[in-house]
Design brief:
Helix content is 74%, strand content 0%. Helix 1 runs antiparallel to helix 5, helix 3 runs antiparallel to helix 4 and helix 5 runs antiparallel to helix 6. It comes from Brevundimonas bullata.
């Protein structure tokens, strides 16, 4: 799904409405990618806010993670936050490296990767409480989009970009 989505984006989505210009310097490409990372960080902030809100309202959880395991109400949001933090670090890093080696209209891949990441995170969060099988699609989509960014960057670096 990730490969077909990225290919379709590159072939059929016009980059101009997404702010892509044909001749962007490295600093401009990085700035472009950073702007697209805002929804990724908003997702992470939302996960953090949910955990903080539950902890604030729970006498059992208020002392903090160092003083005991999370309550049943806090366990899933905490797990989603932890996993989202890990995935965000990898995704943002991969997107920024990719932005350095992409050229012109190829930058349309950045918003596509961010969209796949967010879809994966939402599906992961929705499925988490239902077990590993229910969250697997979201985890796979998140991981595959980040892996795709890394592989594309590696290939382009090998090709001399």
């Amino acid at each position: 799904m990730t490969a077909s989505s990225l290919t379709a984006t590159w072939l059929w989505i016009p980059p101009a409405p997404f702010g892509v210009e044909t001749d962007m310097a490295t600093a401009d490409r990085l700035a472009y990618a950073l702007k697209w990372e805002l929804p990724v960080l908003v997702w992470l902030a939302g996960c953090l806010r949910l955990v903080a809100s539950i902890r604030y309202r729970s006498d059992e959880d208020r002392p903090g993670a160092a003083y005991g395991p999370p309550s049943a109400r806090l366990a899933v949001p905490t797990a989603v936050l932890q996993n989202s933090l890990e995935q965000t670090v990898l995704a943002v890093g991969a997107h920024l490296i990719l932005a350095v080696v992409l050229r012109g209209e190829e930058l349309i891949l950045i918003p596509a990767l961010v969209t796949l990441y967010l879809l994966g995170r939402v599906m992961f969060a929705i499925g988490y409480a239902k077990g590993a099988a229910a969250r697997a699609f979201g985890m796979a989509l998140t991981g595959a989009s980040t892996l795709a960014a890394m592989v594309i960057a590696i290939v382009l670096l090998i090709l001399g970009r």
